Amino acid sequence: MTAQNTPKHIAIIMDGNGRWAKQHKVPRIEGHHRGAEAVKRTIKVAQENGVKNLTLFAFSVENWNRPKLEVSALMNLLERFLSEQMPELIKRKIRLRVIGRYRELPERIQALLHEAEETTQDYDEFTLGLALNYGSRTEVVDAVKAVAQAANAGLVDLNKIDYNSFRQYLYTRDMPDPDLVIRTSGECRLSNFLLLQSAYAEIYLSKVLWPDFDEAEFKAAIAEYSSRERRYGKTTEQIKA
Ligand code: IPE
Ligand code: IPE
Ligand code: MG
């Protein structure tokens, strides 16, 4: 695979843990545990294949509406995952960036996230974005509020705002837009994930349930991406010229 065809930024909607659990006749949380193993595998494969940014949708603003027990089990899993992965982030020089309203997460998790972001902030080879308590609509509302505050304070001229300056107010301000968005489990929707940033992303819908997502399926997604022509509104002839 040529470096030119490797997506710089892959974003993944990790879906299907619950259905995996049902298939295997185990509790849903076991599906989430297996999902966490798939996360570790996927980060490794992304790094080995020259992907520079990987963003994973781990918990949406809408996921708070799940049964209380599932939400608290997910938070416990996240806490354990973060403490366990801290040495790995350092060992493999992974910069962690959290996107979402993470101030609404349990304090113990906020503390871990804060520590991990601070410790890894200077790594520039690979960025892992974790979307936690993330939703595109809340992101846009937060960005609009921040722009309005800056305008009130006389720091920005509203007449001069274009998308490029607006995007500086998004949670993803220091990440490139995703080139490829993968959703597992066969669902065909974006579920409020990176809607603005994915405006021109290629989309790959995988039938695989997230806990079964492996190197072969990841490479299949990258290969499919490489075969596509991104035209950005232009014609094929213009692209080939
Ligand atoms: C994705 O798997 C994990 C989260 C959304 C936290 P699901 O839990 O949504 O799995 P399904 O969709 O019920 O199979
Ligand atoms: C999207 O999956 C959120 C995450 C992967 C974290 P969901 O399972 O919550 O999405 P819907 O409800 O099926 O759209
Ligand atoms: Mg789901």
What does this structure look like?
- It is a single chain.
- The chain is of the alpha/beta class.
- The protein has one domain: Undecaprenyl pyrophosphate synthetase (3-Layer(aba) Sandwich), CATH 3.40.1180.
- 44% of the residues lie in helices and 15% in strands.
- Strands 3-4-2-1-5-6 form a 6-stranded parallel β-sheet, with helices on both faces.
- Helix 2 runs parallel beside helix 3 and helix 3 packs parallel to helix 4.
- The chain starts with 8 loop residues before the first strand and ends with a helix.
- The mean pLDDT is 96.
- The structure holds 3-methylbut-3-enyl trihydrogen diphosphate (2 copies) and magnesium ion.
- One 3-methylbut-3-enyl trihydrogen diphosphate is lined by residues 13-15, 57-60, 63, 187, 189, 191.
List the topology elements.
Elements: E1 9-13, H1 17-23, H2 28-48, E2 53-60, H3 68-91, E3 94-99, H4 107-120, E4 126-134, H5 136-152, H6 163-166, E5 180-183, E6 202-205, H7 215-227, H8 236-240
Parallel strand pairs: 1-2, 1-5, 2-4, 3-4, 5-6
Helix pairs in contact: 1-2, 2-3, 3-4
The structure holds 3-methylbut-3-enyl trihydrogen diphosphate (2 copies) and magnesium ion.
Computed over alpha carbons, the radius of gyration is 18 Å
CATH H level: which superfamily? Decaprenyl diphosphate synthase-like
Gross morphology is: globular
Total domain units: 1
Low-confidence runs of at least 5 consecutive residues? none
Query: What would you say the CATH architecture is?
Result: 3-Layer(aba) Sandwich
Walk across the major sheet and give the strand order: 3-4-2-1-5-6
